[in-house]
Amino acid sequence: MGHDVIIIGGGLGGLIASIQLAKNHYKVLLIEKYNYPFNKVCGEYVSNEVKPFLKGIGLDLDYLGATSINRFQLTSIKGKSLETFLQMGGFGISRYTLDNELFKIAKSLGVTFLLNTNVDDIQKINETFFVETNTNQTFEAKVVIGSYGKRAKLDKSLVRKFPAQTQAFVGVKYHIKYNFPKDLIALHNFKGGYCGISAIEDDKYCLCYLADRKNVKQSGGISEMEKEFMCQNPFLLDIFQNAEFLFEHPLVINEIVFTPKSAVHKNILMIGDTAGLITPLAGNGMSIAIRAAVIASNLISDFLQKKIRRDELERNYTEEWNRNFKNRLWRGRQLQKLFGDEFNSNLAISALNKIPFLLKPIIRATHGKIML
Ligand SMILES: Cc1cc2nc3c(=O)[nH]c(=O)nc-3n(C[C@H](O)[C@H](O)[C@H](O)COP(=O)(O)OP(=O)(O)OC[C@H]3O[C@@H](n4cnc5c(N)ncnc54)[C@H](O)[C@@H]3O)c2cc1C
Question: What is the pLDDT of residue 134?
Answer without folding.
Answer: 97
